[in-house]
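Incident log, structure service

09:12 report received: a user says their structure output differs between two submissions of the same chain.
09:20 pulled the input from the user's history:
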Amino acid sequence: MAGINRITCCRDEKTWKILMRVLEETSGVAPVGKGHTPGVKRAYYEPAMSRAIINTASPAIQERLGFPVAIDVTEVENPMEAAQKAVEIFGRYGYFAKIIDDLETGLRKGFMAFVIVRELPHYALLYWPMEKNVTPEELAEFRAQGEFGPWTQADGAID
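09:34 re-ran on a clean worker, output below:
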């Protein structure tokens, strides 16, 4: 079966190194390999259980996040703690980062935390709680807001 991989492109080597440090210090995820060619430096990460999500969001949500085209999601024990640490690390290197912790209605503030960085336009980090830290009530409340279930051809129909 074919799979989907994600590549995050950073504007320069400093940003690339800072982003890797943020991921490692906030979630323990570190590169395990490299693949450098004359035009591209790559950091490879251990394969992990993952899923691809392609979404669209309301204009208000997109604006608050800076119109991202890429969001790296990391499951952590405490999303707010990880986001605060990420902001501190980016700040240590002169980057401006901020937390958005109330983006989706129906979820308690801080349930999940986005970090957007001025120097990484159209990109966001999302710290999501580990499944064991989500109560059945929180999950039910989130699902009650929308439509969840199997994908159908009608869902992807283009008018």
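09:41 both user submissions now match this output. Likely a transient worker issue. Closing.
09:42 reviewer note: The chain has a mean pLDDT of 87. The two ends are 29 Å apart (CA to CA).
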